[in-house]
Amino acid sequence: MFLVTTSDITHRLETEQQLIQASKMATLGEMATGVAHELNQPLSVIKTASTFLIKKIDRKEQVQDNILFTLCEEIDSHVDRATKIITHMRQFGRMSDMKLEKVQINDILKSAYQFFSQQLKVRGITVGWHIQEHLPEIIGNPDRLEQVFINLLINARDAIEEKYTGMEYRPDDKVISIKSYAENHQVLVEVSDTGAGIPKKITDKIFEPFFTTKDVGKGTGLGLSISYGILKEIGGDIQVVPGPTQGARFILSFPIPQANDSDQTAAG
Ligand SMILES: Nc1ncnc2c1ncn2[C@@H]1O[C@H](COP(=O)(O)OP(=O)(O)OP(=O)(O)O)[C@@H](O)[C@H]1O
Ligand SMILES: [Mg+2]
C-alpha cells in the first residue's frame, strides 16, 4: 500500500513538473508578445512628442511653456512605464534560477510590510495582524516571495485609496489585514483590504499579464501575473475572493514539505 502510494506521488510530481514547465512557457510566449505591444505604446507617445518638437524647432516657432511642460510630463510618465515593464521582465526572467530554501513565511510578511508601514500610516491605513506563530517552514525564495507580498500590499493600498479619495473616513475604514495559518499540509496567507473591490467581470482577468485598471505610469499589470508564476513554481497557488466590506481578499497557499517529498526533511 505504502509503495503504491509513493510511486503515485512520484508520477504525480513529474506530471506536475511538466505542467508547471508548460504553463511557464505559455506565459513566457504570452509575455513576449505582450511586452512588444506594451513597449510600443510609450515609445509612440515619446516619438509623437519628439516629432512635434523637431517640427517646431525646424520652423523656428515658439513652444508655449504649458505645452512644453505637458509634453515633458507625458514623456516622463511613459519612460517610467517602459522602465517598470523592463524591470518586471527582468524579475520574471530570473525566476527560473531562483534559489529555493526553507523560509518562515511570517518573517517574509513582516519584512514586506516594513517597506510600507510609513506610507500606509500617512494615508490613514491600518494593518491588522492575525499571524499564527511557529508556522511550519515552506520551500521558496525569500526575495521573490517578498516581492509577491509587496505587490499585494501596493494593490491593497491603491484599492483603498481609490475608494476613499476625497471621501470622509472613520479610523477603521481603511484596513489591510494579514493572516497566516496552517491547514491540510499547507501554509495559507490571506491579504484582505477594505478597498474598492474587484468587479466580478474582471476577476478572471487580473492574473493575466498586462491587465491593469491603473493609470499609465502607475500600473503595468504585471504584479499579479508574476506573483502567480512565483507561486506555481513552488507548487503553491494564489486566488482571489471577495473581501470584507466589498474589498478584495487574496488567498495564497504553500505546500508544507513532507518528510518523504525529497531528501530534505522539514520541521512540521
Ligand atoms: N486589492 C485589490 N483590490 C481591487 N482591485 C485589485 C486589487 N488587486 C488587484 N486588483 C486589480 O487587478 C489589476 C491587476 O493587478 P496587478 O498587480 O497585476 O497589476 P497593477 O497593480 O495594475 O500593476 P503593477 O502591479 O504592475 O504595478 C489591478 O489593476 C486592479 O484592477
Ligand atoms: Mg500591482
Describe the structure.
The protein is of the alpha+beta class and 268 residues long. It folds into two domains: 95 residues, Orthogonal Bundle (Helix Hairpins), CATH 1.10.287; 155 residues, 2-Layer Sandwich (Heat Shock Protein 90), CATH 3.30.565. It is 52% helix and 16% strand. The chain is built from five helices and seven strands. The strands form two sheets. Strands 2-4-5-7-6 form a five-stranded mixed sheet, covered by helices on one side. Helix 3 runs parallel beside helix 4 and helix 4 runs antiparallel to helix 5. The longest helix is centred in the first third of the chain and has 57 residues. The chain is globular and about 75 Å long. The C terminus is likely disordered. The site of magnesium ion has 5 residues, from helix 4.
The low-confidence parts are 264-268
Overall tally of structural domains: 2
Radius of gyration in whole Å, from Cα? 22 Å
The CATH homologous superfamily name of the largest domain equals Histidine kinase-like ATPase, C-terminal domain
Report the β-strand fraction as a percent range.
Answer: 15-25%
Q: In total, how many beta strands? A: 7
Helix content: 40-55%
**Reported CATH architecture of the largest domain:** 2-Layer Sandwich
At the first level of CATH, what is the class of the largest domain?
Alpha Beta
Q: N-to-C terminal Cα separation, in Å?
A: 24 Å
